[in-house]
């Protein structure tokens, strides 16, 4: 049965409200412009999947407490910072159907706001003497930065392999969900086996999550970015990588030339999308996405049954069934 994100949140609905109050508080500044921008960000919050991963991970192994709220705030501050910076890097003027920070206040302010949010996450950890959470968060920032830079490097050369693709998405996307699951678990237990287990589950879910995002690029649904944008930006995702491995030399050469020199032409981009579909690129990516989802569910089976676990299972399904 397909679940809505609203139903998934029910076991931690009260805790999520408390988190939102504390999160809003953690973003406060003495600079009026910053408060105006952070208020704008809070009002346009998304589905809050990462704080949800934190809270549900904690509730599966203990009682949600102040450490859990701090952990969720750290993750969400850092996630919001990366979104603000990503919009600058991608020159994106929309985020979740609204104008992005850089569209409204220009790149310079957007970069500084991202820096502010990142520094807020670090000082929040230090103020609460959450040094293990700080270590968890810092390693994630490092991984995400390396993943983004590796993707940019490969976009220039268009020589990405499937192995490198998975290295990129593990670093730039899965590492944050891994960190969220570890953070929640760490807030209620010192059991390293459980913390590592939840980290592994988070990474598997994160990979499936990114594969779903990459598949949206080939669909007709509007999710805040036009179809084919990854190809236009020369981002090599799994459907395309698989197709390039499968087609004959001439077709491969044609695809690569189209991406290198004609990715600004909508007709060429749609032609590439058509080839990917015909060659089974989408089918292959969907099968890999489901494979990672199933691996996550198998590992989660080791966790004792509870209402929180049921919601976590539904959240895993939701990551690949969502419409945006």
Task: Describe the SSE topology.
Elements: H1 5-8, H2 13-26, H3 32-43, H4 49-61, H5 66-89, E1 94-95, E2 98-99, H6 101-127, H7 131-157, H8 162-186, H9 192-216, H10 229-232, H11 238-246, H12 249-262, H13 266-278, H14 281-300, H15 307-321
Helix pairs in contact: 2-5, 4-5, 4-8, 4-15, 5-6, 5-8, 7-8, 8-9, 9-14, 9-15, 11-13, 11-14, 14-15
SSE run = HHHHHEEHHHHHHHHHH
- Specify the biggest β-sheet: 2 strands, antiparallel
Give the strand content.
under 5%
Would you identify the regions where 5 or more consecutive residues have pLDDT less than 50?
A: 221-226
In which range does the helix fraction lie? over 70%
Q: What is the fourth-level CATH superfamily?
A: Farnesyl Diphosphate Synthase
Structural class: mainly alpha
Distance between the termini: 18 Å
Morphology:
globular
Q: Please give the order of strands in the largest beta sheet.
A: 1-2
Brief characterization of the structure:
By secondary structure, the protein is mainly alpha-helical.
Characterization of the model:
With 324 residues, the chain is mostly helical. It has a single domain (5-321), classed as Farnesyl Diphosphate Synthase (Orthogonal Bundle). 76% of the residues lie in helices and 1% in strands. It has a two-stranded antiparallel ribbon with strand order 1-2. A hairpin with a 2-residue loop joins strand 1 and strand 2. 41% of the residues are buried.
Quick tags:
1% strand; Farnesyl Diphosphate Synthase; 324 residues; mainly alpha; 2 strands; two-stranded antiparallel sheet; globular; 15 helices
């Amino acid at each position: 049965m397909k679940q809505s994100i609203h139903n998934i949140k029910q076991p931690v609905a009260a805790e999520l409200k408390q988190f939102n109050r504390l999160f809003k508080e953690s973003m406060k500044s003495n600079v009026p412009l910053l408060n105006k921008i952070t208020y704008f960000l809070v009002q346009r919050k998304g589905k809050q999947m990462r704080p949800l991963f934190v809270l549900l991970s904690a509730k599966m192994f203990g009682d949600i407490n102040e450490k859990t709220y701090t952990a969720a705030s750290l993750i969400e501050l850092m996630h919001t910072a990366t979104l603000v910076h990503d919009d600058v890097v991608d020159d994106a003027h929309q985020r979740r159907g609204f104008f992005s920070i850089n569209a409204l206040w220009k790149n310079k302010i957007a970069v500084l706001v991202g820096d502010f949010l990142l520094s807020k996450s670090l000082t929040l950890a230090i103020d609460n003497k959450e040094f293990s959470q700080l270590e968890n968060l810092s390693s994630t920032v490092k991984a995400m930065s390396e993943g983004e830079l590796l993707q940019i490097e490969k976009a220039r050369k268009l020589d990405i392999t499937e192995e490198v693709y998975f290295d990129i998405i593990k670093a730039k996307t899965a590492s944050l969900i891994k960190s969220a699951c570890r953070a929640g678990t760490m807030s209620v237990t010192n059991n390293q086996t459980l913390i590592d287990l939840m980290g592994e589950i988070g990474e598997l879910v994160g990979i499936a999550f990114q594969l779903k995002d990459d598949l949206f690029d080939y669909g007709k649904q509007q999710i805040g970015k036009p179809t084919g944008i990854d190809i236009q930006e020369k981002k090599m995702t799994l459907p395309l990588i698989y197709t390039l491995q499968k087609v004959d030399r001439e077709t491969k050469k044609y695809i690569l030339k189209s991406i290198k020199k004609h990715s600004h032409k909508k007709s060429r981009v749609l032609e590439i999308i058509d080839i990917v579909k015909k060659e089974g690129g989408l089918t292959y990516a969907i099968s890999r996405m489901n494979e990672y989802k199933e691996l996550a569910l198998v590992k989660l089976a080791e966790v004792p049954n509870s209402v929180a676990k049921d919601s976590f299972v539904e959240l895993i399904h939701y990551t690949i069934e969502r419409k945006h």
